[in-house]
Amino acid sequence: MTDMIRCTWPGLTDPIYTAYHDDEWGRPVRGDDLVFERVALEAFQSGLSWLTILRKRENFRAAFDGFSIPKVAAYTEQDVERLLGDAGIVRNRAKIEAVVNNARVALDLPDGLSELVWRHADPDSPVPRTMADVPAVTPGSKALAKELKRHGFRFVGPTTAYALMQAIGLVNDHIEGCVARARESALSGR
User: Fold this and answer.
1) pTM, whole model, 2 decimals?
2) Which residues bind Zn(2+) (predicted)?
């Protein structure tokens, strides 16, 4: 349907991007492993196109044992080398080592990663009228990044933290009138 309004970032030319926008982005994601996957993928996306990560997502899931925090936390240098040889993922040593580090840190969080991240939810954030109204960084993303770094997480700056907040529903940055915003409002009753 061409008359549906969507946020402009996914474009309409790639069905993977459109499906991600319509069916995933901005919907609440809870659970330590599920949130860990999103933290890891946002770190891998740093400096790259999100579409690149989406196209490789199943490869990432297979390579990182479904983003099971205990499994990834147990990775050794041999696992890092294995991942560096995996053409199905982004082969960046610093990012791979950050994901392993972040799993170890997440494993030791007293209330879990999901709880830590969701403390920064902003359900009352303003509804953006256009994509120009969507910030790259907010006070909430700065606070989340600071808290994650305080615990020892890497590749979690304020911009990456805000992208995570958007992706897993801590904020709803679908523009006013967007088909996905309307669907979320109907599901949540607001």
Assistant:
1) 0.92
2) 7, 21, 174, 178
